[in-house]
Amino acid sequence: MSRSSLPNRYQLAEFGALLAEPARAAMLLALMDGSARPAGELARTAGVGAATASAHLKRLLDGGLLAVHEQGRHRYYRLADDEVAARLEALALPRAPRVPRPAGSDPALCRARTCYRHLAGELGVAMCTAWLERGWLQSGSEGLRLQAPAVEALVGAGWEPDVAGRLLRLRGRGCIDWTERRLHVGGPLGVALTDAMLDAGWLRRASRSRALLPSADGLRRFTQLGVRLEP
């Protein structure tokens, strides 16, 4: 985030006020997987009635944290953008130095999960770290950019050339990981990488959480690309 985009004290206070209500916080957390959900589902998630949920959703919309998609008579709510998701993820960071994970953390979520719509957790951090060290990712004033050798390696790992090639046109952003407290790849590049990995069968979504489950073939492919998870 650039200095010009940093919130002033009033915006920061409003952001905190929006999150201070547990029902609103529950709604936001339910949308951290990048999904769009109707008001009724978000009301059940937050444990509130329809009228209360409607008031909370309006507050979140007015505060710029949510966007709404209208389809016929139905309205679906989602996070406004990945910048909102990054702020929410960062708020979960423990203040202690890096070592033990937060108590009660789900091992599957810590290993790999979606942060908004991009890969996070141990696997996301390991990928970002390894590819920066190899020069496959470069960090500059425009964010993170994938380099041609990475595209060649992804094609060698089985991706279609046009799928891998499109990644060169996308920008990513470094997103501080909630559990690892290091960077993973966010932004449009992070989303496109994650979508392609899901399509290739390297990852699959868990049914009841934000966890992403690497397949045996996926782990082999990640190792081939220099990404290794500690046992």
| Global shape | elongated
Taking Cα atoms only, what radius of gyration do you get, to the nearest Å? 18 Å
What is the CA–CA distance across the termini?
Answer: 34 Å
* Element pattern in H and E: HHEHHEEHHEEHEEHHEEHEEH
Strand order of the largest sheet: 1-3-2
> How many DSSP-defined strands?
11
Structural class: alpha+beta
Please provide a written account of the structure.
The chain has 231 residues and is an alpha+beta fold. The protein folds into 2 domains: 3-80, Winged helix-like DNA-binding domain superfamily/Winged helix DNA-binding domain (Arc Repressor Mutant, subunit A, Orthogonal Bundle); 104-224, no CATH class. The chain is 46% helix and 18% strand. The protein is built from 11 helices and 11 strands. The protein has helices at residues 9-19, 22-30, 39-46, 50-62, 82-91, 107-111, 121-134, 148-156, 161-166, 187-199, 216-224, and strands at residues 37-38, 66-71, 74-79, 113-115, 118-120, 137-140, 143-146, 173-176, 183-186, 203-205, 212-214. α2 packs across α3 and α3 (39-46) packs across α4. The longest helix is centred in the middle third of the chain and has 14 residues, at 121-134. It is elongated.
